[in-house]
What we know:
single chain, alpha/beta, eight-stranded parallel β-barrel
Amino acid sequence: MMNRQWVLTRIAKRVAVLLTAVMLLTLTNGFNWHAQTAAAAGTTPVERYGQLSVKNGKLVDKNGQPVQLKGISSHGVQWFGDLVNQDTMKWLRDDWGISVFRVALYTEENGYIANPSLKNKVKEAIEAAQKLGLYVIIDWHILSDGDPNIHKNEAKAFFNEFSTKYGHLPNVIYELANEPNGNVNWNNQIRPYASEVTQVIRAKDPDNIIIVGTGTWSQDVQDAADHPLPDKNTMYTVHFYAGTHGQYLRDRVDYALNKGVGIFATEWGTSDASGNGGPFLNESKVWTDFMASRKISWANWSLSDKNETSAALLPGADRKGGWPDSQLTASGKFVKQAILEGSSNHGGGSNGGNSGGDGNNGGNNNGSNNNGGNNGGDHSGSTPGGNNEGIVLQYRTDDTNAKDNAIRPQFNIKNTGKTAVKLSDLKIRYYYTDESKQAQQFFVDWAKIGNEKVKATFVTLPNPKSKADKYVEISFTDGAGTIQPGGETGEIQSRIHAANWSNFDETNDYSYGATQTAFADWNHGTVYQQGKLVWGIEP
């Protein structure tokens, strides 16, 4: 019975391709030249590539030839769903040359779990993609929920519904878990979850591409490569932000590719990991060249006019497309050009021009309305001294949800003095209130100097303050080296959890900056050199 269903599904997909071609020819009558050119017979992405599959770790077309899809991801449809419609997708196909569109259905953050009707926006995107001959990624966008198993039952029901309704189409791609994070890893949480959800999809759709997120916000592709799923048409996602993630992550991707698994970058940005900073266009070019050389398909974050660097559109951009380059951010211009390079899906018109400067600041990736802000982190509060009076601590938060189960401070130490400073002589203190009264856990998600060279201990203040009863003291091994005059450590991404993974309330924490999503000098954290305070103000 199952084999018969699979055969019928494959036949239905071939029929769907033919019907799509007929529909496109019909719809183009009376449209403008862009649409007529891009939608001509045999020229849309789905008509060119047909049923996709994975062969020897490569995404391949109906003829078994490697293909690189390039496109853009929506932001959360609960916030920017008005930009997800057939008109914008058509403009992106014809003017930008996209071949794939990713629709981001957040589970938390007032997303699908709280408002299941948001799935109708996903259906709208799928049906628009079918008419336009675009591939479409259905993104089950876990983020603050961290562990995909939290909403596993809802995921299984959702993907059962969508694979039943759309599994016969050749252009549908399923993304099962956007960014697993927190106390989860590939073998213990992510892989078992993905195995169950994959079985649900394969019961209805035998061959469309499935993409699975990996640990540490979809950066641990090496773990998936070491123990991949048995499904032959499953790929694994890597997410990166050019201002944060560099060669080490490209090395992980190469490791995975060399192990024979397929990689799809379903989300990447020209900013840093907060969605702000930059844009880092030179490093973005390194990444796009890297992906082109390896035929790694990608979707850029994000189609939104949010006031943040990674947004493609300037605030107030038209909700139906038709954007001149003057309505694109520097990131949007760069991404448009990156898509057009080597694209055979462009219907004419502007080719994007050169990227300009950063016109957007503030905000973050979780949809909160955030305008940056310094919140007291300035030089006037520093207390320099000790052997080197040039130590400066910079800080930003990687988490503007102040009441979840993690504290995510990120640091950068600069040496503005005239002599080199040994990192092993320095210690950073970050002050906070511990509501859990449990043992504390410290993680280094990434450090430019090397994760293994960063250590931490927790200290309870003998005389608690109103905004601090504990601090984490971050130190460095001898192997961390020195900071030369004018140099810096580079980014140190840290994370704190209570042993029982209960929630914190950071709103009253001394060192927390709710709006500090871009690095700035920060005097609410302190630095000690050989035990002497050289930066910051103690609470």
